[in-house]
């Protein structure tokens, strides 16, 4: 359709509000309560525009563009109106600095005073320079506020982890209330009281911890002022650059914007264009990346055990020692374990290393008993194709959703958002524990509409896991429904695909040496002659190791991860690794070189990917770049990995016991980071 | 002066003789012939390995074991005319305490020490014994290696402290006289202890919030653990001394005011708390510290434990410390422990002229400190934010000796060069703190801000007011302060009893 | 350890602390400060003395909450104890019969200048006060000033107090109206003192400022508080805190006050974390 805005001819493809139409064409109409994620609200009235032929003005955010409209966005009357509205908003928001002519020079010199207890002006405000209210005031143009200033009441609320709430800066735009309700489905924040007494708050003015808040940070992201802020970063100077990366703290693979300053991570926020999460995040990806990367338990240097104690060493010394000692142990006596939180490049290197340098022991990993493996094996056992790939957005279209054994807000929060959307559209939701019998389920299932059954590794933990999975399949498949495997680690799918590409070998019976690049059952002291660990954090494995190699995390080393959807995503290096930590593949490359093993001449992650794609066809899309999914299997009998599904070696079963959902490469976030400890530690009804 | 001795005072000689003649001493001397004793090698003080100790603030020297102490004590010849005592600024009866150690009576040795030295655990650690008692040791003359008197002093006093059997000497009846000691540094603590043992009521007024003066703010934890200082101060309190911290004489009250509160005599031990700067361009850049500030932040305010303790200190990658004395050594070793990749000493003379203790220089080099000798900074260079980024230096040559007896440094033209540093500590010396002199009318001052005294009595120009330590000498040593304190205490006692 | 008698929020982000310290109270003079340390792990910070009562034995200071230590102080209540409260430190302000004296006070400076206002009035001066406050709420102790000053004017961005901008213009107007002015004393945040000195420089009016660098011991022993005044390095704690505002190297002071920016943030974040649940 065509319309006129400020005399310009604008062509629109589909339906749009006047505000969207104007912004898409470079015409800035100020607004404060509007937000792309939220339904139009028309509360602040800053976006009022004149439409020829209509009386008065209309809010551009909630007026649909129509063919032939003639819109004026900036007449003198409108400008005066906007100034008036802004003056009213500012009468209750500290505005002295906004209208002070000294602001620029004062700003320059006052940088340390952002750490105030209460904000009395822009230069003392933590969001100075990144405040939407400031931008609007500048755009509208303001040099005085004719009303006496009134300070909104209440102390700054600092009694919750991660988020500070400052009522004195709130302009009651309602974005936080709306995002919490419309997008997150939690409805934690609401308008309390009426008229001039209105404040934003929780029910009964409880702490966020005592309400159903999951600390996703969406309210902080949408707040236009400094009223809702992330405590850990509010006093820091603004970030200098931003890199988009993939979050690897769980299996969903959300897109994150990693903010950097002085070469260090200054915080993370969800990527509005993230394919998986579309601007939403969870407490871990939003608030815990920085504390995890700088945690005191980070391993910074290689360590060698000498006289019973671990001491720091250089890479050369540690690698040479490891190679020498490994060379002295027979192939069948070495056991290798890897992590499903490692990138495809790192995992590929582990498998190749085991094959070429260590004489071919099996690489044990948590993918063996994962939900995805269970689903795959289901297909193979029946000789038919069971699709593993899906899109989170598909969940929102389901008719009935069954969630088995997964506390979605904790383990898969973004999946939880899709479930919420489905329920909002009328889908039925059934929650079950992993151990519950399935008989009652079939009774409860609605025949009208496909059933989506979401399950995690808990279901397979108990005996008869595969049988129960088959039962579930029989319930869902006939009606066109599906089973969705929700694993916890960031790269279970990648790990599975890579493990398949390497021929099956029997696991070592009584290993004399252990190469551990991931979770492994506790090693009894004295059981193994040599323990080499590749890890990012000091944990129980490190305490019993003979040689330790410090590994970079996914944010510090480019790597490919395949999420629960089967989506292949490449995450770049966002920040340099601390100390002397190296990417996993590089450690193995150097070790292989010293052991004279072939097949490791890659000089960059890109080159590893090329070798990876050649060896693991389902990941071939990784080398090509661009959004791609893991190639699905056509129905075919499974190559046996040590025998039929339920006869896997008991070792494997113990190995893949589902880990703490808040574990990150050996660091238990819920135990180590106080904020998360408080969030997880409360007894709160599931939302 | 306390240290100008070539001859022991007659009473002291008699006392030493009396101890020497005791039966147990005679037996002990007979038990091991001198020739045997001379065969022994000096026990090496166990030290923590440099690679490990340079990362934390725990004490470097670990102390002799009992066996080592007795073996070392056996090396002492128990001279009839002990020269070591002459070398000690407070004239400790060294042979007595050493022989008590040999005998295995460690507590008695500690008590013997405490008869003359109220802070033996401290002196055992920080005194420059190598230029005092050990310099004159007969064993040194005979075999080249003196008896490790300092290490033995440390051993005995640590033993007493750790044994938990702290002995309070019987105190005489109270004299009813009040004395005010200004400053809880080595001088003040010594005067307080001595006067308390003579029955007077002593109050120490200390400006900082912890007692110890340079012992708490200047000497790092890795040379003098604060627990030891606390034990010494607690001992004084058990002798009846009152310690009032956060009390600045000169501001909170003047000497005149205190007279009005009944204090009859005063000892000024307010120390050399005025940092000297070089007055070169850039000295006020962020990142340039006086040694006093740097050490106070780290030692007194425990900035090495930031953020558990709130006070920060800049942790540099490359730290340069200007100076060659013990304060400079302490500063540069602290910088290393705070994580500096390079910690450099910049000193304008050569190594032999460095006033620091040999042991400290030795420890510093083990820990990886670099020495840039015959070098002096001429200016500091900063970036646009006023932060230090580099230091321009000039090489020096050595000319004729100056007033201090050391060869005079002469700049070499055209030898300027720049080192990249992000921390510079100016440790070129301290001057007396001006606060008391400024607020005490009638107190005669010397030309560089020191309080003038009669060296025989440590009396100032004001009757009843005595002084000692750095306020009188400029930056000097702990033991010299104690020596002054010893004399002053005796004089104050006489003054109070007249 | 010194006990708190009162701790009160006088204005947003600004608090009053009254401490029982009889010896200090007996000696206080206008323009002096105390060094405060809230607990044994705390930092030593200088606070300007705003009032004292020798009879009651109390000393009063006002402070802005700008970091960990002031946050801790703001959380104290009557009956709590401070680890350190030492003073009075610094050279007292010069009080004499000068003629007309204009006092420029902002933030904590309103409290800090009040003893000088009182003393100058008692010494026979015509005392005119210009109180700067961003909003009406931030102008505290108006009654006290009105009680001792011949005139009290305001500079503010708040309509209720007269929206006539930040200090320089109102100060110029006042100086003109009150001419001849013998001296100006400006106490408040560094920017306010700097701007006041800049405003009076072309008029050649002697302007005294009370410098506020970072301090550690406060008795002249460490040199942390060194600034350049009259072309030489001075220690604000023993040579000041009052200095001739036209002879101060302001750039150096601004930069030195930012010395520990990142550490201060880290410390505050840690404190907030420790205060959680």
Plain-language structure description:
The complex is a heterotrimer of chains A (687), B (498) and C (277). Chain A has 687 residues and is α/β, with parallel strands linked by helices. In chain A, 30% of the residues lie in helices and 17% in strands. Among the domains of chain A are: 2-109, Ubiquitin-like (UB roll); 303-369 and 491-672, Rossmann fold (3-Layer(aba) Sandwich); 371-486, Dimethylsulfoxide Reductase, domain 2 (3-Layer(aba) Sandwich). Chain A has a seven-stranded mixed beta sheet. Chain A has a five-stranded mixed beta sheet with strand order 2-1-5-3-4, with helices on one face. Residues 636-657 of chain A have low confidence and may be disordered. Chain B has a five-stranded parallel beta sheet with strand order 3-2-1-4-16. In chain B, strands 6-14-7-8-9 form a five-stranded parallel beta sheet. In chain B, strands 10, 11, 12 and 13 form a four-stranded antiparallel beta sheet that branches. In chain B, helix 12 links the parallel strand 1 and strand 2 (201-205). Chain C is an alpha/beta fold and 277 residues long. In chain C, helix 5 (168-178) packs across helix 6 (190-200). In chain C, a hairpin with a 2-residue loop joins strand 1 (3-11) and strand 2 (14-20). Chains in contact: A-C, B-C. At the A-C interface, helix 3 and helix 24 of A face helix 2, helix 6 and helix 8 of C.
> Could you say which structural class the secondary elements and strand pairing of chain B correspond to?
alpha/beta
Termini gap of chain C = 28 Å
How would you characterize the largest beta sheet of chain B? 5 strands, parallel
Number of separate structural domains of chain C: 2
Tell me which protein chains meet in the greatest interface and how many residues each side has: A-C, 43 and 41 residues
CATH architecture of the largest domain in chain C: 3-Layer(aba) Sandwich
Counted up, domains of chain B total: 3
> Which homologous superfamily in CATH is the superfamily of the largest domain in chain C?
Nucleotide-binding domain of ferredoxin-NADP reductase (FNR) module
Poorly predicted sequence stretches spanning 5 or more consecutive residues of chain C: none
CATH topology of the largest domain in chain B: FAD/NAD(P)-binding domain
Radius of gyration of chain C: 18 Å
CATH class of the largest domain in chain C: Alpha Beta
Oligomeric form: heterotrimer
Enumerate how many helices of chain C there are, as a single number: 8
Question: Count of DSSP helices of chain B?
Answer: 21
By CATH reckoning, the class of the largest domain in chain B would read: Alpha Beta
């Amino acid at each position: 359709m065509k319309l006129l805005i400020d005399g310009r001819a604008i062509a629109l493809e589909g339906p749009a509000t006047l505000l969207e139409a104007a912004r898409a064409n470079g015409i800035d109409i100020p607004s404060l309560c509007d937000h792309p994620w939220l339904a139009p609200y028309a509360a602040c009235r800053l976006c009022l525009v004149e439409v020829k032929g209509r009386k008065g003005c209309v809010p551009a955010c909630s007026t649909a563009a129509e063919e032939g409209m003639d819109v004026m966005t900036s007449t003198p009357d409108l400008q005066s109106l906007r100034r008036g509205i802004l003056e009213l908003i500012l009468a209750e928001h500290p505005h002295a600095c906004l209208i002070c002519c000294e602001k620029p020079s004062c700003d320059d010199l006052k940088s340390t005073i952002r750490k105030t207890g209460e904000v009395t002006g822009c230069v003392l405000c933590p969001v100075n320079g990144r405040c939407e209210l400031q931008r609007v005031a500048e755009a509208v143009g303001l040099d005085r506020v004719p009303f006496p200033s009134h300070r909104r009441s209440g102390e700054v609320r600092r009694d919750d982890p991660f988020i500070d709430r400052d009522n004195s800066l709130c302009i009651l735009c309602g974005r936080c209330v709306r995002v919490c309700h419309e997008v997150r489905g939690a409805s934690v924040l609401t308008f309390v009281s009426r008229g001039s007494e209105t404040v934003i708050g929780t029910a009964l003015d409880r702490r966020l911890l005592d309400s159903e808040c999951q600390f996703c940070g969406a309210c902080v992201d949408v707040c236009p002022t400094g009223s809702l802020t992330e405590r850990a970063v509010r006093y820091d100077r603004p970030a200098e650059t931003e890199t988009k990366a993939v979050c690897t703290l769980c299996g969903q693979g959300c897109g994150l914007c990693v903010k950097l300053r002085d070469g260090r991570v200054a915080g993370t926020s969800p990527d509005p264009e993230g394919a998986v999460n579309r601007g939403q995040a969870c407490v871990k990806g939003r608030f815990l990346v920085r504390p995890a990367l700088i945690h005191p338990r980070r391993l910074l240097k290689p360590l060698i055990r000498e006289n019973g104690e671990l001491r720091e060493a250089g890479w050369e010394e540690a690698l040479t020692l490891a190679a020498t000692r490994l060379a002295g142990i027979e192939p069948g006596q070495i056991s290798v374990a890897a992590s499903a939180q490692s990138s495809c490049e790192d995992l590929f290197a582990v498998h190749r290393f085991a094959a070429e340098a260590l004489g071919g022991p099996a690489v044990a990993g948590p993918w063996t008993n994962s939900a995805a493996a269970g689903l795959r094996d289901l297909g193979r056992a029946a000789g038919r194709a069971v699709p593993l790939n899906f899109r989170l957005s598909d969940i929102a279209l389901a008719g009935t959703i069954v969630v088995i054994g997964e506390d979605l807000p904790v383990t898969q929060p973004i999946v939880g958002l899709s479930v919420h959307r489905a329920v909002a559209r009328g889908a039925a939701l059934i929650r079950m524990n992993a151990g519950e019998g399935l008989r009652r389920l079939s009774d409860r299932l609605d025949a009208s509409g496909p059933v989506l059954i979401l399950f995690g590794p808990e279901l397979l933990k108990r005996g008869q896991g595969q049988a129960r999975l088959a039962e579930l399949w029989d319930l869902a498949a006939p009606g066109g429904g599906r089973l969705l495997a929700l694993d916890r680690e960031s790269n279970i799918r990648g790990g599975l695909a890579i493990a398949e590409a390497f021929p099956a070998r029997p696991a070592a019976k009584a290993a004399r040496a252990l190469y551990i690049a991931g979770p492994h059952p506790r090693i009894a002291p004295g059981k193994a002659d040599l323990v080499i660990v590749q890890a990012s954090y000091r944990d129980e494995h490190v305490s019993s190791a003979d040689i330790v190699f410090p590994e970079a995390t996914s944010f510090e080393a480019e790597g490919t991860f395949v999420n629960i959807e089967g989506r292949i995503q490449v995450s770049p290096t966002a920040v340099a690794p601390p100390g002397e930590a190296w990417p996993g593949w590089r450690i193995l490359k150097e070790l292989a070189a010293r052991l004279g093993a072939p097949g490791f001449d890659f000089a960059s992650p890109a080159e590893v990917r090329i070798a990876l794609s050649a060896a693991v066809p389902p990941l071939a899309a990784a080398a090509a770049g661009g959004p791609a999914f893991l190639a699905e299997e056509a129905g075919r009998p499974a190559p046996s990995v040590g025998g039929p599904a339920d006869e896997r070696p008991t070792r494997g079963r113990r190995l893949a016991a589902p880990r703490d959902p808040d574990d990150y490469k050996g660091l238990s976030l819920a135990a180590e980071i106080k904020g998360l400890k408080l969030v997880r530690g409360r007894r709160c009804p599931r939302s | 002066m306390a240290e100008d001795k070539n001859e022991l005072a007659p009473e002291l000689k008699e006392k030493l003789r009396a101890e020497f003649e005791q039966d147990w001493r005679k037996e002990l001397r007979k038990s091991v012939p001198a020739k045997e004793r001379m065969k022994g090698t000096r026990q090496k003080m166990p030290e923590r390995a440099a690679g490990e100790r340079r990362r934390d603030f725990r004490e470097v020297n670990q102390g002799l074991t009992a066996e080592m102490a007795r073996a070392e004590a056996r090396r002492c010849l128990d001279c009839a005319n002990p020269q070591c005592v002459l070398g000690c600024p407070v004239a400790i009866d060294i042979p007595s305490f050493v022989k008590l150690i040999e005998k295995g009576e460690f507590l008695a040795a500690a008590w013997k020490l405490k008869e003359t030295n109220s802070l033996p655990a401290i002196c055992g650690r920080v005194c420059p014994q190598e230029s005092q008692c050990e310099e004159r040791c007969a064993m040194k003359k005979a075999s080249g290696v003196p008896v490790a008197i300092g290490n033995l002093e440390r051993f005995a006093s640590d033993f007493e402290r750790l044994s938990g059997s702290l002995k309070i000497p019987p105190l005489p009846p109270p004299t009813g006289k009040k004395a005010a000691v200004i400053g809880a540094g080595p001088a003040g603590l010594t005067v307080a202890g001595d006067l308390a043992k003579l029955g007077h009521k002593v109050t120490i007024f200390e400006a900082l919030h912890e007692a110890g003066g340079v012992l708490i703010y200047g000497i790092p934890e890795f040379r003098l653990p604060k627990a030891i200082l606390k034990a010494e101060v607690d001992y004084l309190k058990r002798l009846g001394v009152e310690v009032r911290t956060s009390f600045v004489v000169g501001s909170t009250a003047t000497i005149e005011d205190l007279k009005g509160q009944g204090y009859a005599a005063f000892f000024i031990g307010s120390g050399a708390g005025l940092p000297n700067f070089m007055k070169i361009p850039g000295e006020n850049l962020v990142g340039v510290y006086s040694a006093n500030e740097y050490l106070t932040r780290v030692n007194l305010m425990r900035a090495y434990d930031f953020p558990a303790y709130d006070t920060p200190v800049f942790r540099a990658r490359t730290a340069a410390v200007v100076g060659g004395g013990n304060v400079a050594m302490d500063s540069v070793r602290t910088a290393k422990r705070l994580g500096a990749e390079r910690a450099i000493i910049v000193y304008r003379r050569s190594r032999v002229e460095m006033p620091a203790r040999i042991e400290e220089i030795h420890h510093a080099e083990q820990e990886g400190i670099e020495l840039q000798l015959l070098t002096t900074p001429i200016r500091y260079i900063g970036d646009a934010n006023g932060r230090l980024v580099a230091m321009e230096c000039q090489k020096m040559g050595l000319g004729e000796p100056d007033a201090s007896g050391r060869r005079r440094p002469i700049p070499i033209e055209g030898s300027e060069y720049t080192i990249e540093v992000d921390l510079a500590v100016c440790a070129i010396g301290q001057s007396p703190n001006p606060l008391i002199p400024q607020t005490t009318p009638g107190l005669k001052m010397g030309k560089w801000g020191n309080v003038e005294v009669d060296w025989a009595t440590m009396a100032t120009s004001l009757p009843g007011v005595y002084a000692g330590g750095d306020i009188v000498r400029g930056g000097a040593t702990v033991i010299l302060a104690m020596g002054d304190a010893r004399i002053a205490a005796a004089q104050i006692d006489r003054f109070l009893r007249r | 350890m010194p006990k708190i008698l009162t701790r009160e929020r006088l204005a947003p982000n600004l608090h009053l602390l009254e401490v029982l310290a009889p010896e200090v109270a007996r000696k206080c003079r206008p323009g002096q400060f105390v060094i405060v340390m809230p607990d044994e792990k705390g930092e030593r910070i200088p606070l300007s003395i705003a009032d004292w009562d020798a009879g009651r034995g109390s000393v009063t200071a006002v402070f802005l909450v700008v970091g960990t230590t002031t946050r801790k102080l703001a959380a104290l209540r009557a009956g709590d104890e401070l680890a350190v409260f030492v003073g009075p430190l610094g050279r007292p302000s010069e009080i004499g019969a000068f003629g007309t004296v204009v006092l420029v006070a902002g933030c904590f400076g309103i409290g800090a200048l009040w003893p000088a206002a009182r003393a100058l009035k008692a010494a026979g001066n015509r005392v005119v006060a210009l109180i700067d406050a961003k909003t009406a709420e931030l102008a505290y102790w108006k009654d006290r000033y009105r009680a001792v000053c011949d005139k009290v004017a305001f500079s503010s961005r708040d309509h209720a107090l007269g929206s006539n901008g930040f200090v320089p213009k109102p100060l110029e107007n006042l100086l003109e109206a009150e001419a001849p002015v013998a001296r100006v004393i400006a106490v408040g945040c560094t920017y306010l003192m700097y701007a006041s000195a800049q405003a009076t420089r072309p008029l050649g009016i002697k302007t005294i400022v009370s410098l506020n660098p970072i301090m550690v011991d406060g008795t002249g022993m460490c040199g942390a508080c060194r600034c350049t005044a009259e072309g030489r390095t001075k220690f604000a704690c023993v040579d000041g805190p009052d200095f001739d505002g036209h002879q101060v190297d302001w750039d150096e002071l601004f930069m030195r006050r930012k010395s520990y920016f990142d550490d201060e943030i880290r410390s505050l974040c840690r404190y907030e974390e420790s205060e959680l649940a």
